[in-house]
Design brief:
alpha+beta; five-stranded mixed beta barrel
């Protein structure tokens, strides 16, 4: 299921997963890394107890149950300051990684041979998307990727690599509501409440951010889909951004494919400063580590943003950073 990490030329992308030398399992975050560490975090650790996440050799405890930067930092011991993010982030030194799990290869494995009901449902989901012509871009992530899933409890988690593949997938799901169904009302309300509480936004704002092309029901299983442009880059070659302080602004977001990537980028067309630190020049974009806002960033719209105001001397631009340990901030669709 995993492939050995044989050289520094291996290139990982968002939501690849890895196995460390002490058999912990973690998740790669974003497409920008280095040859000697990956930006990512530990999600599962080996335990002697019986749990719902097991393979033929070990059982695992899920230590990061929700993606919250404070929790992520708690369970990942290695951290470093990244100038491009202007933030301290968790990292995984490449020398402690003994396997990389590739979502696209795992999707092909399951399509060729599914070994339980959840894998067979995942294979069926993939076959549906094959009709859109994106066979090279479909990946499986979540507990299905390292093979520690439990068919009774685990969900279907996918990631689509490639810009064209992402657009085709979204259009296909929107055109097939009977196959890719919305959450039933009770589950939708549960999702809305949880996300509103986690991000400190009103219930109605969270409701506005639900999309069937991100989460829904396939057959009897819940699914989630992430999107990624599939382009690797070195985090060391990106410009430095420095935090100036907290800010609150009202913005108008231009529809942009960049909104689908992770971390997500919202292109700003207009903005009005409300309080906090004031941008003294062009406010170009928002960078968010909170995936909840992806639909707003992709489709565009008006929103109130609270985050860290940052400045890049190289670009002579300002931006707002949301969803990091230093300050979670929030984005409320208006």
């Amino acid at each position: 299921m995993g492939r050995e990490l044989k050289s520094l030329e291996d290139r990982v992308l968002d939501h690849y997963m890895f196995l460390t030398r002490d058999n912990s399992i973690g998740v790669i975050v974003g497409n920008s890394h280095t040859d000697f560490f990956y930006i990512g975090y530990i999600k599962y650790v080996v335990t002697n107890k019986d749990t719902i996440w097991c393979n033929n050799f070990s059982c695992y405890e899920r230590v990061v149950k929700i993606y919250d930067p404070r929790i992520v930092h708690k369970y990942t011991y290695w951290k470093t300051y990244i100038p491009y993010y202007g933030s301290e982030v968790p990292i995984i030194p490449s020398h402690i990684v003994k396997h990389i799990y590739d979502p696209k290869k795992r999707a092909l494995e399951i399509l060729f041979k599914c070994e339980d009901n959840l894998e067979c449902m995942a294979a069926s989901f993939i076959e549906q998307l094959y009709g859109t012509g994106i066979s090279q871009g479909i990946g499986i992530t979540g507990s299905l990727l390292p093979g520690i899933h439990n068919p009774r409890y685990s969900d279907l988690d996918f990631i689509i690599y490639g810009t064209r593949e992402a657009i085709n997938t979204i259009e296909f799901i929107e055109e097939n509501p009977s196959t890719f169904q919305v959450f039933p009302e009770d589950r939708l309300n549960e999702w809305i409440k949880r996300n509103a509480e986690m991000n400190k936004i009103p219930l109605e704002a969270a409701r506005k951010l639900y999309r069937r092309w991100r989460r829904g029901i396939y057959g009897e299983d819940e699914y989630s889909i992430l999107y990624n442009n599939g382009i690797y880059s070195s985090i060391l070659n990106k410009p430095e951004w420095r935090t100036l302080g907290k800010t609150k602004i009202i913005i108008e977001i231009e529809p942009s494919i960049d909104g689908l990537n992770y971390p997500s980028i919202a292109r700003i067309s207009k903005w009005i400063h409300i309080s906090g630190t004031v941008p003294k020049g062009d406010l170009s974009h928002i960078l968010s580590f909170e995936a909840l806002y992806i639909p707003l960033f992709f489709e565009g719209g008006k929103a109130q943003v609270e985050g860290l105001l940052q400045y890049s001397k190289v670009l002579d631009e300002y931006r707002v950073l949301v969803g990091v340990k230093e300050y979670l901030g929030r984005i409320i669709p208006l």
